[in-house]
Amino acid sequence: MWSCGPLNGTGRGEDQPLCQHSQLVLSAFSLLYLAVGVPVGLGYNALLVLANLQDQGSMTMPDVYFVNMAVAGLVLSALAPAHLLGPSASGWALWGFSSEAHVTLLVLFNVCSLVTMYSTALLSLDYYIERALPRTYMSSVYNSRHVCGFVWGGALLTSFSSLLFYICSHVAARIVECAKMQHPEAADAIMVFIGYLVPGLAVLYALVLISRIRKEDTPLDQDSGRLDPSVHRLLVATVCTQFGLWTPHYLTLLGHTSLALRGGAVAGQHLGTLLFAKDLSRCLAFSSSAVTPLLYRCLNRSFPGKLRRLVKKMPCGRQSCSADQAGVQQVLA
């Protein structure tokens, strides 16, 4: 992923020092994420899921979507070492993998990205419904759980284009129609449109509606059944974080698709910049799996209480439980 090999045949010797510096920056950033971000993402996402599932009666609509994003974050954290240390194009890869494994990892990455973006968009829309019509129960926990199931199913169906690309790469010699499906640019274009533009427009529309409602001071604001006011801060922080960390990845996909449609090869002076942007955007996308649960921990007032109840229900002896409670107290602090 950080090899300068693609520049060797371009005749751009002056780009080699820049490429070497970029390689060092990406290597340091990726190793830092693998050493810190992956354990944090796995730990906090697991705590977020367990703390909410053990006390499902106290879950609210936002909790359901954050549990959904936490499950996707667990998968992303598990995929990070394989993506960041094992690509076949990497100059310092610790291992390599076959084309089957590469396609599997790509499909799982795309599924997690779709689940994360659509969970964020649906959270924004349901928050607006809850603010506007608090007693209709349209944005209830029951409905949100079924919506999250449809999100995972839709993400799997959308990522099916990558599987078609892999299948056609093997049977193209026997099926002429598959020759038109061997280009990954089509899959990238689908991911940009469905995975970024559609949820982005939904979030923008929801935020505009939410801002209009917040300007109106109505008696419903005193309703005890409404969501906690801290949910608004959590929503804004989550939207900004997710779209801020995932936008570079989708922009690189859009740029790759645009270059492919133009039919021109990438010039040597721009190849290093494109590779650097692609790899850096992938690292930023993976880091979202660690940042989102931290935001949930800092901005959700009910999470510390759920975590304490989770510790109390753990079946363990007195000594181990006291040690676990001490560790949890440090986490809560």
From TrEMBL:
Its main location: membrane. CDD domains: 7tmA_GPR146. Residues 44-296 form the G-protein coupled receptors family 1 profile domain. GO terms for biological process: adenylate cyclase-inhibiting G protein-coupled receptor signaling pathway; positive regulation of cholesterol biosynthetic process. One of its GO terms (cellular component) is plasma membrane. It is found in: Cell membrane. Keywords: Cell membrane, G-protein coupled receptor, Membrane, Receptor, Transducer, Transmembrane, Transmembrane helix. Pfam families: 7tm_1. It is a multi-pass membrane protein. SUPFAM superfamilies: Family A G protein-coupled receptor-like. The keyword Glycosyltransferase does not apply. This is G protein-coupled receptor 146. The lineage of its organism: Eukaryota, Metazoa, Chordata, Craniata, Vertebrata. The gene is GPR146.
